[in-house]
Amino acid sequence: MRVDETLKMVIAACDAIIASESYLTEVDQKIGDGDHGTGMALGMRAAKEALFMKESFETVNEIFKTAGMTMLNSMGGASGVIFGSFFLGGVRGKEAITELDGKTFLHIMEESLDAIKKRGGAGVGDKTMVDALEPAVLAMKEKDSDCISEMMETAARAAAEGVEATKRQIAKFGRARYLGERALGYQDAGATSVAILFQAMSDYLKEQKTGC
Ligand SMILES: [Mg+2]
To answer: pTM for this one?
Structure first.
């Protein structure tokens, strides 16, 4: 997939989060502090603006870096670091990517996951966004396809299953950790955002019939 198509895919991801603001707020209000939707939408609006401001991008790295850095700087707090790293973590120090295929996307997401786990200290089962991201990465590894739309569809499905799994977990981070077993039955807001991001990118690739 070309750089200009990658840009449109990332903007579609931003739009999906912006459109989900009140849903994410609702999800976070159940067990968290209720600021996830506002924070994510703020970061994604800023990211979108930063992506539009630049005339053109030469590499996929620049797109992911621009989105990630802008989220990091605009959102602040733990979410800013974590979701900034979602875009930023995997392209740091990587050689220029001018064509984004399925395997390259997997490598980016593998390194993003690593960066996020190191920064945040959460693992699978802790009821965080890692519960959507790690299964997505593992599912893509198993799929091992060059076709990015196939890989994105795989990631979206695994992330959605990961969101469902968070309903059966007790939280180890955030305000939800004080709830203990009372957090059971409720999904994690961060994991929900990850699933929305992958689903939006998958939908975009399918609509455009691009990515393979
Ligand atoms: Mg919060």
So the answer is: 0.97
